[in-house]
Design a protein that fits this description.
heterodimer, A: 488 residues, Rossmann fold, de novo design (two linked rop proteins), five-stranded mixed β-sheet, 14 strands, B: 125 residues, alpha+beta, Glutaredoxin, binds flavin mononucleotide
Chain lengths: 488, 125
């Protein structure tokens, strides 16, 4: 048997159990961890076990979950909250949706465990309204768990009670940031505020609150059932366990993968992902979505964990992995992500509001062939300043796509500026469609399809494209049956 | 439904549920992935088509739905477990292939193409 590269912990049940039937979850060992915590462990022991496991938050920042719970447990308050962050706003990421649709009880169970550990009795799942099936299955799960006494009053006959409700987000990326999320849950504008105080001290309705990501939560019942020392055997020194990624783009096996921390990029792309389609060369992979950066063909031996990715000016992020091949232009990719952050900035702080726009405009100029060398220097300067001064994680990470692509592909930026060329052949303003004289048979098809009539030539004679008039629509290239038109 | 009052209750329920599931393993089990992506690519039609084919052939088969099987590139996906055999996941199943799967694999045990190899270890609690 070939060695298996994936270990499914957070996704252990998805695809194997019926998510709309609590019995299916219980048969798979569900709620054993909650029962064990309530019956056999004190809250402090649960927190110690979580600390010992080394689990770090899977929502992006990678903060140790046990430590966060420990802080919240330390504050005295009549009410404390457990919040599940199911906002999942990274383009191309759908791990959390898959977990919620495939195994909703694992998240509910972990939230109740969190409540028990910190001394809280209320939980809220903040989920984007665009996830109707996940919401439906969560509602069914909550109802069934209440019926069986796993949620609600006196869980497992103990004096611990825990109630759960669901709040809906409107799909703003910034609302995934925990302080903006709390504002949004309270009915205020989804804008972040400065920390401290951290939510663990004063969060939802100013009460001690733990905010945890769906995937973080889904792993917890497995950790507490099998033990911290089982979990912390998997992974690297600083990053324990597994990470779920959505691997998309130019990759054969588009899908969800769950791999141990410390796996190399090469293994992920070529073994698990099945390599790049159509015999193309692997160029880079964007991890961490708009907040992350590119790992490139030079980083194939990088071990994927929190520190390994940060060293490449990228970040773990929540788990999006967008694979790019030789036909992708890194400047255009940066522009795509900056377009996203520019749209999604909440506008509260100046570096993010104005900075995203300025970076976007600069990238736009470069892709249009109007960039200067000053633009390249300015991009670096603006990126550094924004990272240092923005209020929340959205702004602080927004320049990452630029910085990380410049790290390896600065020559590609320069080619756009100095040679006015897009090496990958993506930025249309910098392309030329030309006729290859030797191949052209003069069939006139290209001239007929050209919407601006910029192709001339007599029947059975070589045709010519008027570059000044060409709008670069590419219609001629598609129409030509003799491969006599090329893009360069 | 009675509430569970202890870890012992829970363990007993689990054992009962596992025994019930085991008692069913003398029949084929068809598990259709029905997450958003699988539904969008036609998973529900596949489920219906397989049920209809099973009925028209007069077979005795258990059906279940589940969430994401992680193989986005091969949706819709269906896992079939024949009595005494390891589960097999088939990808790229449309309604025609669904019928064929019932006729060939479920009924005759004859493998069709589109089998997705198992590339992971599933942690079981
Ligand atoms: C702009 C921005 C968007 C975020 N989006 C999400 C998200 O969609 N889901 C998530 O769990 N965390 C998101 N986070 C991270 C949260 O602020 C927070 O760190 C996380 O929910 C904590 O849970 P964890 O410790 O389990 O990872 C985002 C952060 C930023 C700055």
């Amino acid at each position: 048997m070939s060695e298996k590269k994936q270990i499914r912990i957070a996704t252990r049940n998805s695809g194997f159990i019926d998510p709309e039937n609590i019995d299916s979850y219980i048969a798979a060992g569900g709620y054993l961890a909650l029962a064990k915590c309530i019956e056999e462990m004190t809250p402090a022991q649960v927190i110690d076990e979580m600390k010992a496991s080394g689990l770090r938050g899977r929502g992006g920042a990678g903060f140790p979950t046990g430590v966060k719970w420990g802080f919240a447990a330390g504050y005295k308050s009549d009410t404390k909250y457990v919040v599940c962050n199911a906002d999942e706003g990274d383009p191309g990421a759908f791990m959390d949706r898959a977990i919620l649709e495939g195994d909703p009880h694992s998240v509910l169970e972990a939230m109740a465990i969190g409540g028990y550990a910190i001394g809280g009795n209320k939980g809220t799942i903040y989920i984007r309204a665009e996830y109707p099936l996940a919401i439906k299955r969560l509602k069914i799960a909550i109802e069934q768990a209440e019926e069986k006494g796993m949620l609600g009053k006196n869980i497992f006959g103990s004096d611990f009670s825990f109630d759960l409700d669901i709040k809906y987000g409107a799909g703003a990326f910034v609302c995934g940031e925990e302080t903006a999320l709390i504002n949004s849950m309270e009915g205020d504008r989804g804008e972040p505020y400065t920390k401290p105080p951290f939510p663990a001290e004063a969060g939802y309705w100013d009460k001690p609150t733990i905010v945890n990501n769906v995937e973080t939560l889904a792993a917890i019942p497995a950790i507490l059932t099998k033990g911290a020392s089982w979990f912390n055997q998997i992974g690297t020194e600083t990053s324990k366990g597994t990470k779920v990624f959505c691997i998309v783009g130019k990759i054969n096996n588009v899908g969800l993968i769950e791999v141990p921390m410390g796996i190399t990029l090469k293994e992920v792309i070529f073994d698990v992902g099945g390599g790049v389609p159509n015999g193309k060369e692997f160029k880079a992979v964007q991890t961490g979505g708009p907040s992350g950066g590119a790992l490139t063909f030079k980083d194939l031996d990088v071990k994927i964990d929190y520190e390994g990715l940060a060293a490449c000016q990228s970040m773990m992020g929540s788990g999006g992995m967008i694979v790019m091949d030789e036909d992708d232009c890194m400047v255009a990719v940066s522009k795509f992500f900056l377009d996203f952050t520019m749209e999604e900035t909440c506008g509260k702080c100046t570096p993010c509001r104005i900075g995203s726009k300025r970076i976007y405009e600069t990238l736009d100029r470069i892709t249009m062939g109007q960039g200067t060398m000053d633009d390249i220097e300015n991009l670096k300067l603006m990126s550094t300043v924004i990272k240092d001064t923005a209020l929340c994680g959205l702004g602080q990470t927004m320049p990452n796509p630029v910085l990380s692509t410049m790290r390896v592909f600065e020559d590609e930026y320069r080619a756009h500026v100095i040679d006015k060329k897009c090496p990958a052949g993506v930025c249309t303003s910098l392309l030329e469609f030309v006729v290859v004289d030797e191949k052209c048979v003069g069939c006139t098809l290209c001239a007929k399809v050209c919407p601006v009539d910029c192709i001339s030539g007599k029947v059975k004679e070589v045709h010519v494209i008027d570059q000044a008039a060409c709008i670069k629509c590419g219609a001629c290239l598609e129409k030509c049956k003799f491969d006599a038109i090329i893009k360069r | 439904m009675a509430k569970l009052n202890s870890i012992a209750d829970l363990k007993k329920l689990r054992a009962d549920l596992q025994a019930q599931a085991k008692a069913k393993t003398d029949k084929p089990l068809v598990n259709v992935s029905l997450a958003t992506c699988s539904v969008a690519s036609g998973g529900r039609d596949v489920m219906e088509a397989m049920k209809a084919e099973v009925a028209s052939l007069g077979l005795d088969v258990n059906f279940m739905q589940s969430g994401c099987m992680t193989y986005c590139y091969a949706e819709p996906t269906v896992e079939i477990t024949l009595p005494g055999k390891e589960p097999v996941v088939f990808g790229f199943v449309d309604t025609d292939k669904a019928k064929l799967l019932v006729q060939k694999y479920v009924k005759e045990g004859e493998l069709l193409d589109g089998v997705i190899p198992v590339g992971y270890e599933r942690v079981v609690l």
